[in-house]
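The passage that follows is intended for readers who have already worked through the single-chain material. We present the inputs for a multi-component assembly, then the predicted structure in tokenized form, and finally a short commentary. You are encouraged to pause after the input and sketch how you expect the pieces to fit together before reading on.
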Amino acid sequence: MAKSENIPVPAVRRLSLYLRQLEAFNEDNRTTVSSRELGEALALSDAQVRKDLACFGQFGHPGIGYRVPELIQQVRRILGTDRISHVLLVGAGNLGRALIAFRGFAKRGFELVAVFDKDAAKIGEMTGGPNAIRIQPLSEMPATVRKHAIRVGILAVPAAAAQQAAEEMVVAGIRGILNFAPVTLQVGAEVEGASVDLAIHLEQLSFQVSGSPA
Amino acid sequence: MAKSENIPVPAVRRLSLYLRQLEAFNEDNRTTVSSRELGEALALSDAQVRKDLACFGQFGHPGIGYRVPELIQQVRRILGTDRISHVLLVGAGNLGRALIAFRGFAKRGFELVAVFDKDAAKIGEMTGGPNAIRIQPLSEMPATVRKHAIRVGILAVPAAAAQQAAEEMVVAGIRGILNFAPVTLQVGAEVEGASVDLAIHLEQLSFQVSGSPA
DNA sequence: CTATGTGAACAGCTTCACAGCG
DNA sequence: CGCTGTGAAGCTGTTCACATAG
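Having made your guess, compare it with the prediction:
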């Protein structure tokens, strides 16, 4: 039975990995999978897989394992990606444009419906590449957020502009920010933040590669 | 004194955050910082900051705090970024090109010195934008890795090509892979891996935004 | 016999609280 | 005094081992 409280944060992170792997199994027409198989594909123990899933309900079938399509549906429901979520982007620079062209979002239940930039020269311009979309001024953000019921936004502006842009996103009604700028955003507790800093990931690898013995 | 063993993985992750914040303080010409101030800027407790740093040595000065330039130097040394590290990129698609144009690497001690792609049509082409660089065939990777003493590589190819590309990187001598493809790479224990999956980060935000009360 | 779900044991990380130094 | 460094305590997450179900 679902332990509605006491859900470890790491378990939620792994839930996304389970979903990704389950979808891979599903495309290979696997119908069931055991906790051991799922764990092996993700370098986790079987017990870990079972404990994580047990946080949210009883999805397994003793002697059988987990039915792949069923579990996919359940995990999507838990993560809130069983319906399409509208997402916006602030910052149409190099990274922002790469994100617009990225086709991986739709597959996972996200649709990029609006792009904003501070630079007046970019406003109104259509971005190139696939999924082209019109760039709007920041002033239109509150209305667009309301219109499309957007809750999550991606922030891809230079470090110096990030804090202010984040504040404008919060004012516009954004509840979760995926931040690509190399700064720690100071936002209220009512807003969730997640950061991706490319240089930091390289640093971590650098440490691991230097530190481990040959 | 440095506890040369028993270094918590989370402490190493935070080390990169400390460095980033210290550099921000340094640009504001702050000369010293206390564990409390450093922690506040990163939403961590003062004790956490002290414990983390104490894993690697005694850098603080009682009554004063930490001297900013001194600590920056120490942390860089620990992370292995006190010298420039050469990095390669596999995959010159949308994301790859955005990474090539990204100026944030150099500031943190990384230099992108080579780009590889499987697509014969792209070979030899110079990428556009800043930091333009020639695209090489995968067959040249082993020689280039040796020539530039490259240890870390960025993998930015489609999911279906990622595993094979990763294996070629390992054969070429790469020791750490930063993977942007939405798959779990199966690599030997002698190779370090780190993954960035944009859809997964959005999923996590989606969960947090849905799950928390209004 | 296979594979889940789960209490109990274990390990690891964080917080606390304070001695000690400048 | 202010602030670090650190043992001890507390807490959270993981692994183990087994009862249970198909």
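Commentary: The longest helix of chain A spans residues 9-27. The beta strands of chain A are 32-33, 60-61, 65-67, 85-90, 110-117, 135-137, 152-155, 176-179, 192-195. How closely did your sketch match?
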